[in-house]
């Protein structure tokens, strides 16, 4: 009788063991999917600005494009508005081929031209993680571009010229570290989406890969090993530190889209993966730019001409230096050399890649938009001056910083330039500041 009981229990024990193995395997897959979703920066585009944790992956993030605003879609586990009813094949097709559940063509704001290089098992791990998260029952704002850009069938034509379908394969002649870096840079982190220039048909110009991208009011800088235009003077550790923290003293501090990439994705990667990214990036072909005549972090020096202005009590409307003194000197130092040490240090305005560029757009955009990075070690913040300074004053301030601390070639900003960038960022103009009014 006892033997019969044991024999009868064996199938149940085997089933329980198999269930436990499946559960453990699924948990491992979800955990791996979470890391891959972070590496792919899914949160940044598929979560609305200011949304709380209950709306994560619920869509609604506005992505500016030359043709209008494209909104990130709901990729939560919701069955009506999200991906809760999607099959594995449907999800893989959307991520790697840019085709939605019902066959609609997706806009390449979803970087499937990079994600096509992902491994199928990695895409499915991301899906498993998304399905483990709370459903967000909301359609969110819908993309509504003007004609002819609202005709999604046109994406088929776009793909004929700009989409090379296929998973990235390892290069057996390279190290495991290099191959991992290539996979992260080319596929998951989709670095080329911002840092590679576009062709006339708005595809990535792979002949000039990573040589810099035009983001409208921002510039995604050249990250090839060119010593003047790119990052050829950066060490391996410089790159790893920047990707992890967004700041390298005497070189750069992150802002704009790069700041968001570090906040949501790069700071959370393992040191091994960050080193792999740096290894790969430092190996790509160098691409120069004749307009950048020396390294971007090799411009400028301390300038002390604000000292006499403090004593004279000049107001912000009386000179460019006084404007700097009132708006910037408290944090960046009277001589522009920065202040503080370590993680919360305010960066120097000279020996900085933004002020040392011949293109002033990032500098102006930082003044307009400010900087805010939520980091694991704390928050990095610079206030926006959009509501304090008018277009003429911001142009004057930017040109002063370029002449005194950075690349003088960038001191060509006009009030009209600022107004255009202000409008693109949907920022309102401040009240007119009357002559003689104190800051």
TrEMBL record:
MF (Gene Ontology): electron transfer activity; heme binding; iron ion binding; oxidoreductase activity, acting on CH-OH group of donors
Residue numbers binding heme c 3: 328, 331-332
Transmembrane segments: none
A Pfam short name: Cytochrom_C
Entry keyword Repeat: yes
Gene3D superfamilies: Cytochrome c-like domain (1.10.760.10)
Residues that hold heme c 2 according to the record: 191, 194-195
Main location per the UniProt record: membrane
Cofactor, how bound (note): Binds 3 heme c groups covalently per subunit.
UniProt KW keywords: Cell membrane, Electron transport, Heme, Iron, Membrane, Metal-binding, Repeat, Signal, Transport
Domain of life: Bacteria
Cellular location(s): Cell membrane
InterPro entries listed in its UniProt record: Cyt_c-like_dom, Cyt_c-like_dom_sf, Cyt_C_IC, Cytochrome_c-type_DH, Membr-bd_ADH_cyt_c
Cofactor: heme c
UniProt protein name: Cytochrome c
Source species: Rahnella woolbedingensis
């Amino acid at each position: 009788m006892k033997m019969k009981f044991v024999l009868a229990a064996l199938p149940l024990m085997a089933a329980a063991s198999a269930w436990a193995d499946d559960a453990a395997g699924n948990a491992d897959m979800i955990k791996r999917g979470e890391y891959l979703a972070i590496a792919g920066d899914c949160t940044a585009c598929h979560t609305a600005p200011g949304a709380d944790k209950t709306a994560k992956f619920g869509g609604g993030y506005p992505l500016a494009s030359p043709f209008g605003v494209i909104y990130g879609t709901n990729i939560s586990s919701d069955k009506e508005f999200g991906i809760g009813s999607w099959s594995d094949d449907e999800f893989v097709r959307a991520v790697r081929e840019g085709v939605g559940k019902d066959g609609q063509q997706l806009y390449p704001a979803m970087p499937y031209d990079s994600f096509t290089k992902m491994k199928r098992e990695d895409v499915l791990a991301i899906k498993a993680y998304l399905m483990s998260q709370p459903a967000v029952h909301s359609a969110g704002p819908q993309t509504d571009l003007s004609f002819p850009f609202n005709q999604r069938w046109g994406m088929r034509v776009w793909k004929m010229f700009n989409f090379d379908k296929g998973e990235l394969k390892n290069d057996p002649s390279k190290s495991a570290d290099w191959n991992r870096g290539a996979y992260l840079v080319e596929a998951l982190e989709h670095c080329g989406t911002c840092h590679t220039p576009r062709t006339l048909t708005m595809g990535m110009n792979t002949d000039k890969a990573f040589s810099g991208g035009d983001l409208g009011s921002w510039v995604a800088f050249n990250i090839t090993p060119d010593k003047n235009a790119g990052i050829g003077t950066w060490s391996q550790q410089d790159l790893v530190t920047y990707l992890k923290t967004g700041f390298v003293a005497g070189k750069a501090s992150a802002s704009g889209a790069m700041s968001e990439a570090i906040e949501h994705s790069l700071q959370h990667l393992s040191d091994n993966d960050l080193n792999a990214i740096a290894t790969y990036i430092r190996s790509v072909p160098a691409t120069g730019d004749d307009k950048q005549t020396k390294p971007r972090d090799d411009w400028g020096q301390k300038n002390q001409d604000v000292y006499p202005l403090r004593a004279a009590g000049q107001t912000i409307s009386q000179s460019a230096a006084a404007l700097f003194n009132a708006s910037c000197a408290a944090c960046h130092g009277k001589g522009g050399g920065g202040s503080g040490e370590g993680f919360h240090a305010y960066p120097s305005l000279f020996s900085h890649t933004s002020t040392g560029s011949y293109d002033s757009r990032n500098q102006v955009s930082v003044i307009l938009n400010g900087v805010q990075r939520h980091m694991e070690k704390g928050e990095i913040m610079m206030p926006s001056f959009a509501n304090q300074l008018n277009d003429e004053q911001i142009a004057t301030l930017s040109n002063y910083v370029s002449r005194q601390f950075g690349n003088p070639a960038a001191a060509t900003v006009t009030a009209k330039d600022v107004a255009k960038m202000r409008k693109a960022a949907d920022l309102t103009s401040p009240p007119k500041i009357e002559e003689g009014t104190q800051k």
